[in-house]
Structure formats: C-alpha cells, structure tokens
Amino acid sequence: MPDELTRITMNEQEFNNLAKDSPFRESPVMPNMLEGDTTIQFRCHRDVKCWNACCSNIDIPLTPYDILRLKNRLGVSSAEFLQQYTFPYEMDQDGLPGVKFQPVEGGTACQFMVEEGCSVYEDRPASCRYYPVALLSMRRSDEYTDRTAYALVQEAHCLGHKEERRLTIEDYRQEQGVSDYDEKSRGWRQLILKKKSAGPAVGKPPLISNQLFFMASYDLDRFRAFVMSPSFNQSYVVPVELMAEIVADDEKLLAFGCNFLKQSLFNEKFLEEQEGAFEKHRARLNERGQVIRDAMQKDRQKLADDMYSPDPRPGDCGCGGTD
Ligand code: SF4
Ligand code: SF4
To answer: How far is the CA of 161 from the centre of ligand 2 (A)?
Structure first.
C-alpha cells in the first residue's frame, strides 16, 4: 500500500497533481473522483491468492484516532505506541508532523500482519479499512467546509478486483466500519486541510507550534498531563466538568485537543484565557530573555578578558627568573 494510494486526506490540488503527474494507463489510481453511490467490483477474503500482499509492503499514515484505538487495544501509553510502531514524517512544507506505521525491522511488512491476516483487525487504521478506496477530503481556499469524494486504487497484485462482487462505495464503507473513524477524525482532517489551503507560511512556523500539534494529535497521554499542569491552568480557564471529561475519556481529549489547536494555530476562540495570563506570560518571557542576555554579557566579558590577558610567561611577574 504505497502512501499516495492510502492517504485519506488530500486536497483538490494534490489530486489534480497526482492525475497530471501519473500516466493513468499505468497508475493504480483511477483518474476519476467517485461518489458514494458509485458501484465498484471488489472482494477480499482469506482464499485469495494475494492474501496479505497489501500488508507486506506498507506506507500507512495514521490519524490521531487510529493511534488512540491501537494504543488502547494494546494497553500501552501513546508514547510507547509511537516509539515502537511508528516513525515521524513531515506532512507539508512547513514541517507539520505526521506519523506512519513503522514496518518490521529490516523489512516492509506491517508489524501487525500475521499468517491469518491482521492481528488488530477490529482496530485497524482507517487507511486499511478503506483500501482499495481512497478518501479524498477536499477544501478549496474559498470554501469553509470540506467536501468528500473517493478514488479507486487498482494495484496489479490485488486480485480482489477480479472477484465477482459488486457494491456501492457507501455499502463498502459500512461493511468496513469507516463511518465512526471518519466522524472522529473530521475535525482533525479539517485542521490539516485548512493548514494546507492556507499555503506556505511566511517563514517556518515556530517549532513550538509543531511540537504542540504533535502532542495534541498523537501523544495523547502527554497532552493530558500538559492540560492538567499548573502552567496550562494558569493560562486558560477550563471548566471543571470539561476537565473531568477529558481526564477520563480519550476521545473527548482528542476533540478538545483539536479545538485547542485551532485556537493556537488559527486564533479560533475556544478557551478563555485567565485574566492577565498574556501579561504574565510576556513577563516570564522577558525574565527569561534577561537571564539569557546577562549570560551572554558575561560570556562576552570573559572573552574580552581572555583576549587582553594572555597567559603569563616566565618573567612577566617581574622576578626575571625561570623558576
Ligand atoms: S494494520 Fe492490519 S490491515 Fe493494516 S497494514 Fe497492518 S496488518 Fe494490514
Ligand atoms: S485482495 Fe487485495 S486487499 Fe485483499 S489481500 Fe489481496 S491484495 Fe490485499
């Protein structure tokens, strides 16, 4: 499953580029954007000759909800999951962080692939569920909401397209249980599209915003600790009921993180700031800046002292001797 075939968020320009750059006679991506009521011919089952071929050579980007489901299934923390099963990549020219499945050591197969198929089937990511359909979530720069369309991926090794079964894309989505995944990822997908539609930023965004994006999107357990920290609560007003919900419920925390990112990245009002938080924050930054300036001044002074005070040589002290 190469990345370009399995990504689930794509803007219109990207799709057009894909169409333009690919000679469609050979490309596995059908050139048409399809609607949900389009009929496709496809069936995947244990007896196909290509069983597991699609999971043997993976390039699968993950959504925050994919990670939430998998880490909870495996009973590990988000940090443990990210470390063992993923690697980071950049989703856009500003270095917006994404994560993909890390294949088995020294190979290209998914770590969850076993002879019988997928060992995490009930919690497999959205891209795996959709395959061989690709979800195109698109937004024009002059539109506020995103639009959904689909494309069909026909890779030569996938024999499921030769099976005698016809169904609509909508029925296939139901069968694969993607509605829940789409619903839970909608806010995050819109965030990415908005970021992409905004075009390249003037200069790179500050590192902190990418770090915040990574934590709120993928490293949920660390994000929860951050939201509960005194410094966060000194800066923002989080109603008690909301705090109780996000502490106890990963999905609520994910939705909270998405809204918080919209506020941080696009200034969309979500949380009230504590009174005077901005001024206190600025004072803290000024304080830190002063400490750094003082340290630099000391370094400069030391450098000057060293330059104008060469090492003493024998006789410099005036004794005239060598002992
Ligand atoms: S998670 Fe499951 S379906 Fe997806 S690539 Fe891995 S083994 Fe295949
Ligand atoms: S039919 Fe396609 S999706 Fe099913 S196992 Fe074969 S390659 Fe994978």
So the answer is: 9
- Expressed in angstroms and rounded, the spacing between residue 318 Cα and the centre of ligand 1 is 81
Burial of residue 38, with CB atoms counted within 10 A of its CB: 0-12 exposed, 13-18 middle, 19 or more buried: middle
Instruction: Please give the span between the terminal C-alpha atoms of the chain, in angstroms, as a whole number.
Output: 78
- Mutating to test ligand 2, I would choose from 40, 51, 152 the residue with most ligand atoms within 8 A of its C-beta, which is 51
Q: What does the pLDDT read at residue 3?
A: 44
Per-residue pLDDT tens for 22-42?
A: 433 456 766 678 999 999 999
Long-range contacts of 86-90 (CB under 8 A, 24+ apart): 86/62, 86/218, 88/214, 89/61
Task: State the distance from the centre of ligand 2 to the C-alpha of 155, rounded, in angstroms.
Answer: 9
- Per-residue model confidence as pLDDT tens digits over 114-170: 999 999 999 999 999 999 999 887 766 556 567 788 999 999 999 999 999 999 999
Distance CA 90, CA 97 (A): 5
90 C-alpha to center of ligand 1: Å?
22
Residues with CB under 6 A from ligand 1: 55, 58, 60, 110, 112-113, 118, 120, 124-125, 128
Identify the nearest ligand to the CA of 44 by its number: 2
Please state, in angstroms and rounded to a whole number, the distance separating the CA atoms of residues 314 and 318.
9
- Nearest atom, ligand 1, residue 124 CA: 1
pTM score:
0.79
